[in-house]
Amino acid sequence: MKTVGASSSQAGLIGARPPPADRQAGAPAGLPVQRACELTDTGDQPQWLIEGLWADQAVGILGGQPKCCKSFLALDIAVSVAAGAPCLRRFPVHRTGPVLIFPAEDALAVVRQRLEGICMAANAQLDQLPIYVITAPRILLDLPQDREQLRATVAQFRPALLILDPFIRLHRADENASKDVAPLLGYLRELQRQFAMAVLLVHHVRKGSSTDRPGQALRGSSDLHGWGDSNLYLRRNNRHLILSVEQRAAASPDDIPLNLSVNGNAPSLAILDTPQSDKHPLPSSPSERILLALSQANGPLTAIQLRKACRIRTSTISTTTAALIASGHICRSPNGYSPNASPSPVPVSLPLPL
Q1: CA distances from 209 to 79, 284, 318 (A)
Q2: What is the model's pLDDT at position 319?
Q3: Which residue, of 157, 210, 256, 311, has the greatest Cβ tally within 10 A?
């Protein structure tokens, strides 16, 4: 019996290149394809635009509540990339180049004033930096003509970084609808890949989202959180700002305390020194950690707040607080845990699991 198709079944051996497909005249060409073993190997280390903060050619969100200095941080990043100066005077820049900014909400005079203040802190001269500001009154990414104008502008200046601030002013779509948001984010990703640049999109978080994980607190569709390669989040903690960093392909650093400092009339963000209380090791006992945190707090602390302050697991918080309540050292109210004014004389170092 004659075997049919035996030779064709062997044509797909590993390492063999598939034969070119027959195409009719005028038919569209296929998509570019490369064997996995031939892909560029950049090693295990991530490629950085700003080390630890923003990956090279990454898209992402700079999110936070209103009045949390999101625009200040975006401009600080712009000065760093354009000047090669460390961002926030701490994070080294690995790739310098032009920066293109569209500030949709701030007056142009305010943008210049802020940039000059940041340049003063960074020991840079604004008139020597390749920072370009789009002065158009609006850009709507859901309008084809606006998308093409932005593409043409990016092609003209070839920035290493494009900053769009804020997202809400860049469209007329429903932010909560993935079908509306996904095409806008897809366009920005396409732009990033076409011009090998980074894209930073400033965005707000939902009201009343202070207890959520930073990325989950972003307003609108979850596509926004999933889209980012590098994401930064700002929130207020009493009088100070806290910067959280989220990376898709690298480990994220611990939260960074910031403050808006003023040098003359020039404000800029600065990293706060580690508080004195953090320069000493935490007590080894979970009960001691919890009692210390409650004694230093201005009011009751929730279990989530205790976990962050004490750096211990949620299960340990639960068992330790239960023991401290039973011993009379703390009490619990609807607002959280508080120390008792006159605790019973039970040793602080209770034999509880770590």
Answers
A1: 30, 32, 23
A2: 87
A3: 256
Scan for tokens 């064997």, then name that residue.
35
Within 212-354, strands assigned E span 230-237, 240-247, 256-263, 266-271, 330-333, 336-339
Determine the residue type at 143: L
Cis status, amide bond into 166, omega within 30 of 0: yes
Which amino acid, residue 342? Answer: S
Domains in the chain and their CATH numbers?
48-274 (3.40.50.300), 281-339 (1.10.10.10)
- Stated as kind and residue range, the H or E segment containing 237 is strand 230-237
Residues 6+ apart with CB under 8 A from 145: none
- Phi, psi dihedral angles at 64 (to 5 degrees): 165, 170
| pLDDT tens per residue, range 67-121 | 899 999 999 999 999 999 999 999 999 999 999 999 999 999 999 999 999 999 9
Q: Which residues contact 148 (CB under 8 A, 6 or more apart)?
A: none
162 touches 154 (CB < 8 A): yes
Q: Write out the H or E segment, with its range, that includes residue 321.
A: helix 314-327
Q: What is the pTM of this model?
A: 0.68
